[in-house]
């Protein structure tokens, strides 16, 4: 017999807490109190079949479709697929410091390249920074590249140049950057300085004719980050280090490049033709949605080989060994292949060999 389970009701809802240690199932539901008007039915349909109903969707179901769930389903099936992959690839902005099988780095000169107004980022943690006299007063140098200039610098001891290890970075202008002269056994926090130069070095890119779009707080919690939305008429960054590239924007502010993965457009109607790196081609799992439009680009096709005679001698075997495999290859002399010796030593269950 089922046990009586107490029901606790408050002003707007009731709850049941069944005893622990048993399994339960719902046998029936009293729907007499559930609204059954057209809009409520449409809202329940959309709550179960979509990411959530909007008033516009509810009005469409009740008005244009007369509340017919089958008609709504047929309409959805007939729509072109809006694939999450394409939506995601247009918006992802993963940080990277080198090309991978996922994608190459977006060039500083390309639309969508990302820039920061603060000097240090997480890639600098563990690196050595040198504070030296120069520029606007003092220069902070990493791997021989000046990253910013400051009017004053009173951290550490000893004569300049002073060398520090970057222990920790908070990526925001004036937030803490921990510097240490004893391998982070102790450290001193300085404000993360804005990128600044008294006069732009020759390596700094000139983006005077470009357009930059600040990332809003909805997208990112930190300020001082912009995207390149219109490239300058002339831009060349091939010779610049990807983690230490700087530019001066239209308003005269300086920024440091924050390299990100570049994703290629790879949609049903426009399959990708460029590789993600030198050795990898775009590859998407075949599904019922894309199988009619999958294409193998010529540059991504499998390698094909033609037949050619190979002379089996000492010189050939030596080439195979020195070609990178470092494996010994043996050849056989006096092997008889006529009857009754036609059985191949490579395919028979047993073959006998002597040294």
TrEMBL record:
Superkingdom of origin organism: Eukaryota
Protein name according to UniProt: Uncharacterized protein
UniProt organism field: Eutreptiella gymnastica
